[in-house]
Specification:
The complex is a heterodimer of chains A (360) and B (301). Chain A is mainly alpha-helical and 360 residues long. Among the domains of chain A are: 174 residues, MetI-like (MetI-like fold); 37 residues. Helices cover 77% and strands 3% of the residues of chain A. Chain A has a two-stranded antiparallel sheet. In chain A, helix 2 crosses helix 16 and helix 4 packs parallel to helix 11. Chain A is extended, with a radius of gyration of 33 Å. Chain A starts with a helix and ends in a 13-residue tail after the last helix. Chain B has 2 domains: 52 residues, no CATH class; 228 residues, MetI-like fold, CATH 1.10.3720.10. Chain B is built from 15 helices and no strands. The two termini of chain B are 40 Å apart. The chains are: A mainly alpha (360), B mainly alpha (301). Chains A and B meet through helix 2, helix 4, helix 5, helix 6 and helix 7 of A and helix 1, helix 4, helix 5, helix 6 and helix 7 of B.
């Protein structure tokens, strides 16, 4: 009797072992591990060229670093660099405010403009190739020095549009703080528009993915082009708008024409005692945090809200899941109770008076 | 007049064309301006009656700009500086994109998060330690400062390229790769034989963008490769343009005869010269350029 029990236990163990190998999804898991091998270059790169510089940049920002012939001398100053930048540096705050206002103004302009052009390019027009050629040209030639050169020569604005009169009109209506960036944007209209090359590409590919039959259905139901735009095109492009907005912010922030970036480099190589690597790192951190907050704000503003139908589906799925969980719980409890009763019965603690069904 | 629901009307079409042409003109205006003023002599520039067409075809501006920029040398080095990291980018980003698209390993979401974060983060934040790192490794002011990060998928704007590849490899039917595995191909073999050949559009897109962006990058090139004070021999056309005034004055001192003062025409010729190679590339490859974006879905939803 005892032997058979042992046997069965061993058998059970074996079976379990075999089951382990047969468990569904093991092969998948083994495949998944291969992913790490393909990711090796990225892991190395992220550690060496991303994590390590990020960490040491933070350490630099807390130090005053002087370069001597013997090497770099670190002098821990805590938040000294940050307070120095925020309080004493005359340029940084001014540049930062300029950057923020001009970004907040020009990002919507660029995105809306890109959307309009993409929609026009998506229409049935003759010479589509030619127009595409023109509108994608900025993707190729936009770079800091070239734009700087063009702006310096006054080629950045159209002389046909009288920008002076325009900015005068704006200044008379709006307070100076808001009027200045707006007229700046207008006087550099071309460069602002030139930033929208990639965004047009993204919108165009998004527009081409929208199912044509949706428009047909809307037309049959009597929807006008205007309604189609608001009810079909825009909702379908929601994620593209978010993507383009973030891309534009990142592009403007990383553009080498940006004065803050120039300031960081300048203070990095400035020979003065207070500035140098630590100071520049602190500046870069401040700047990055501002950029991240800006991107976050734009993302929050545009984050796709789930529509009503999706919400209901999600709620139903959740309810179903909860039900299944409860069911399992009850089952488990029943089994546990049964086992406990069995055990106690085996010990003889419980004597049950079983009544046979036949009695009835 | 405004058209029926099926056919677009004359007025609407006219409006669209007019708008497209107007905006198109604004787009090309700087280039036209550049071309026309680069061909002008100083007299033409000062003559207010001449606006677009110069009185005579004058190529001496180009000659002077090219000489002061050291054009042929800078062109060759630009091609190397943009081209070699691009090839490295293609290799590393395609492998990474494949891994993210094909395998469901643990921590994948974290990896994706880091990739997106590193796209949003300004490069200035890692710039200084990276500069120190490169100088410790002894690769500062050499082209290796661009090649090495690109080899490990951390090149300039690499997150975008990884996402493009990821998006593309996701579209390849899983059955295709499973079939190759049943036929006995290993992971690497199915990657090289199945996934890579079908990802040609993604490769073209990434190669074009990577090349263009490396070409146009002046800030990091100046810092890592050219040297802040121009310590290295490496230079690119865009960097040369950035320091155009300084270059021109040094050229002026060495040139014996025929050098004029720096003026707008010469500036514009220099600008045009530095974008000319890219424009030629664009006009040759523009069909690939536009089509491949439609196909890859650069958008990465």
């Amino acid at each position: 009797m005892a032997e058979t029990k042992k046997m069965s236990r061993r058998e059970k163990k074996e079976l379990k072992e075999r089951m382990k190998h047969l468990k569904s999804g093991t092969l998948e898991k083994r495949y998944a591990r291969m992913g790490y091998i393909f990711m090796i270059p990225w892991f190395i790169g992220a550690a060496v060229f991303l994590a390590y510089p990020l960490g040491s940049s933070f350490w630099y920002a807390l130090n005053n670093i002087r370069i001597t012939p013997l090497g770099r001398i670190f002098n821990f100053v805590g938040h000294g660099n940050f307070t120095q930048i925020l309080i004493e540096d005359p340029d940084f705050m001014i540049y930062l405010v300029d950057y923020l206002t001009s970004t907040v103004i020009s990002v919507p302009i660029i995105v809306v403009f890109a959307l309009i052009i993409a929609m026009m390019l998506n229409m049935k027009i003759k010479g589509k190739g030619f127009f595409r050629l023109i509108f994608f040209l900025p993707v190729i030639i936009v770079s800091g020095p070239i734009l700087g050169m063009l702006n310096a020569q006054g080629a950045g604005s159209v002389s046909a549009i009288d920008t002076a009169a325009l900015s005068g009109a704006i200044a008379s209506v709006l307070p100076d703080i808001i009027a200045k960036p707006i007229s700046d944007v207008f006087s550099n209209m071309i460069t602002t528009l030139w930033y929208s090359g990639v965004q047009i590409l993204i919108f165009l590919s998004g527009l081409q993915k929208i199912d044509k039959s949706m428009y047909e259905a809307a037309k049959i139901d009597g929807g006008s082009a205007w309604e189609c735009f608001w009810k079909i095109t825009l909702p379908n492009l929601k994620s593209m708008i978010l993507l383009n907005t973030i891309y534009t912010v990142v592009f403007i922030s990383n553009n080498s024409d940006n004065p803050i970036i120039g300031l960081i480099k300048e203070s990095m190589f400035s020979g003065t005692k207070e500035k140098g690597y630590g100071y520049a790192s602190a500046m870069a951190w401040l700047y990055s945090v501002v950029v991240l907050i800006l991107v976050g704000l734009f993302a929050l503003l545009l984050a796709t809200r789930k529509d009503q139908y999706e919400k209901q589906v999600r709620r139903a799925m959740k309810a179903r899941k909860r039900e299944a969980k409860n069911k399992k719980k009850i089952e488990r409890r029943n089994r546990r109770n049964a086992r406990r009763i069995e055990q106690q019965r085996a010990k003889g603690k419980i004597t049950t008076h079983t009544t046979k069904r036949d009695d009835y | 007049m405004f058209g029926t629901k099926d056919r677009e009307g004359f007025l609407k079409q006219f409006l669209v064309y007019a708008l497209l042409i107007c905006i198109g003109f604004i787009y090309v205006y700087p280039i036209l301006h550049m071309v026309s003023s680069s061909l002008m002599t100083l007299d033409d520039m000062l003559d207010s009656s001449i606006k677009w067409l110069p009185s005579s075809l004058n190529l001496s501006n180009y000659e002077q700009a090219a000489k002061s920029m050291d054009f042929w040398n800078a062109l060759w080095q630009s091609i190397v500086i943009a081209g070699v990291p691009t090839i490295c980018n293609l290799m590393s980003c395609s492998v990474t994109g494949y891994a993210l698209a094909r395998f469901d390993f643990r921590g994948k979401k974290i990896v994706m998060g880091i990739i997106i974060l590193s796209f949003v983060l300004p490069s200035q934040i890692t710039m200084i330690p990276t500069y120190v790192l490169y100088s410790n490794l002894g690769i500062l002011n050499t082209i290796w400062a661009f090649i090495l990060p690109a080899l490990f998928a951390q090149g300039f704007k690499a997150p975008i390229f990884i996402l493009i590849f990821w998006q593309f490899f996701r579209q390849i039917p899983k059955a295709l790769i499973e079939a190759s595995r049943i036929d006995g191909a290993g992971h690497f073999r199915s990657f090289f034989r199945i996934a890579l050949p079908s990802a040609k559009p993604a490769f073209i897109t990434v190669a074009l963008f990577s090349f263009v962006w490396y070409w146009n990058e002046s800030y990091l090139t100046e810092l890592y490769v050219h040297g802040v004070y121009g310590q290295s021999d490496w230079t690119t056309l865009v960097v040369q343009l950035d320091n155009f005034a300084a270059n021109f004055s040094s050229y002026q001192q060495t040139a014996t005869a025929g050098a004029t003062n720096l003026n707008e025409s010469i500036n514009m010729s220099g600008t045009l010269l530095s974008i000319l190679p890219l424009m030629i590339l664009y006009f040759v490859l523009q069909r690939h350029f536009v089509e491949s974006i439609d196909r890859t879905g650069i958008t990465g939803e």
